[in-house]
Amino acid sequence: MRLLSIILCTLLASGVAYAQDTPQQQADATVAVEALWSTANAAYSEGNFDKAITDYEKILAQDLHSAALYYNLANAYFKKGELGKALLYYNRASRIAPGDEDIRHNQEYAEKMTKDSIEKIPEFFLVTWIKQVRGTFSCSAWTVFSLVMLVLALTMALVYLLAQRMSLRKVGFYTMAAAALLFVVTTVFAISERNVLTKRSEAIVMSSAASVKSSPDRSSTELFVLHEGTKVTIGETTDGWAEVRIADGRKGWIEDKRIERI
Questions:
Q1: What is the Cβ-side half-sphere exposure of residue 256, based on CA atoms within 13 angstroms?
Q2: Euclidean distance between CA atoms 110 and 114, whole angstroms
Q3: Greatest CA span in the chain, whole angstroms?
Q4: What count of other Cβ atoms lies within 10 Å of the Cβ of residue 115?
Q5: Residue 87 has pLDDT above 80, yes or no
Q6: What is the pLDDT of residues 95-107, one digit of tens each?
Q7: Which of 114, 205, 220, 257 is the most buried (most CB within 10 A)?
Q8: How many CA atoms lie within 13 A of 22 on its CB side?
């Protein structure tokens, strides 16, 4: 399945240009990706994590992305002890496949290895529950669900308008109402998941230690220090600095080169 997702990603990412290639060129491109994927996996199995990372990143360099690719790359970095890179790619993988238990388990395990122990601000239980439900599926899956609900709602609307029997009209009306409501909910979830993927408002600290300042200036007051692997939310950016917020609500400015956006 993971190999299949890489090949599928190859076909999708290449777009119109790929469609204009000859069948032989298409076949060669697919074989090349398969070869890189196989050699990277073999290197990982042999404990040669540098080789595995190099080959996985060659696939990324072709502008090909998938949860499986990010997941394997994260595992390789974790084995090398590069916690920041590992968490960066675990987070990227979980954004594409939020329901994948393997990704979630490894990400949570890696997060426990970070030095910063940050107590999260308590969240209203309903908000937490909605986020958990929304994160069950990817943006693409929610989009498919919303389209199915739209078709169902329109079909039931026709049943309600055209049916002669009152019982059928009632079924059509109530089913239409339920499908319309689900269409709105799933559409909102799809848009939310897409915003998470495209806005890149979160980042991982990549430096072993990074000072968070009161203003975007090295001479300003140091508020606190963050360590490799800690996740931050990005606000404003200016002149090589980014305003960041951590889970306990504290904010400050950090040099942009110290973090990498998810």
A1: 11
A2: 7
A3: 79
A4: 13
A5: yes
A6: 888 889 999 999 9
A7: 205
A8: 3
